[in-house]
Amino acid sequence: MPRWPERLPHPALVFVVFAWGCNFVVIKYSLVDLPVNVMMLLRYMFMGLALWSYAAAMRLTYRPKREEWVPFLFAGFMSTGLYMVFFLEGMARVGAAQGAVCLATAPIWVSIFSVLKGRDRGRWELYVGGAVAYLGVATVILMGSGERHWTPLGLAFTLGSALIWAISVVMMKPLLQDRPAVGVYLATYPGAALILLPYAVMDTVTFDYSRVTWVGWAGLAYLVFVAGAGAFTAYYVGVREAGPAKASMTAYFVPVVATFSAWAFQGIPVNLPQAVGVAILLAGVALANHKPATKESTRAAAPADEIA
Questions:
Q1: d(C-alpha 30, C-alpha 151), whole Å
Q2: Which of 40, 50, 205, 250 is exposed most, by the fewest CB atoms within 10 A?
């Protein structure tokens, strides 16, 4: 049972919203100093070490049974491997606001896949809300003023990352039953190496790290400890103490923080049509995930469990 008062925002979830919202801008700064594949592999290694240290200290590690290794490794390949390749390659080609709103469509895909797997019923809210949300995405992307901050390939990567993340969330759901979330996530972690090592290991070994400024190292530290291990742990604290329904609401506020942090730190203007587009997106995602009060929600939380 949730222990946190329903009427109050949980501080752990407030932290998650700001950590993941600002994450998109931090990535843009980090990519100035670090190639996308090098940053990806460094983040993977250091975040794995940080989470493993936490899980070991709290006795939250989990070792899969022999017959469980294949689904665990495949879940890691999708959620921490292929997802991160699409997400960061996309973020290298789009602005922070565009990336955030694209990724915010992941909850819609989670609900659709739940319907396809028979875990949920098809609802008009899901289909209408999905269409409305994508209208909001198009508005934010196409109504930007000034310099163009996105490419078609970047949009394809970021929208693809939302789709891949949704698939991985549905895959992770049965693995999390009666098991510690952090321990399960770490048990899937080696699966990501199947794609990240071939993709980045040679460049990571040969890269000239003397070129990296303090901004690049600070950005990497943020991605590892704040938006990575810290926000991930805080998210599950929120799930435990405030309940999964309130925790899932974080996905609705992340693109708002990302949009305004891009304005505050990068000077990227936010015009009225874009602000309306963000509102349309949030309304669409909320409608798509609305269910009758008598039905228990089967939706898993979105970008982000590991959104960024």
A1: 19
A2: 205
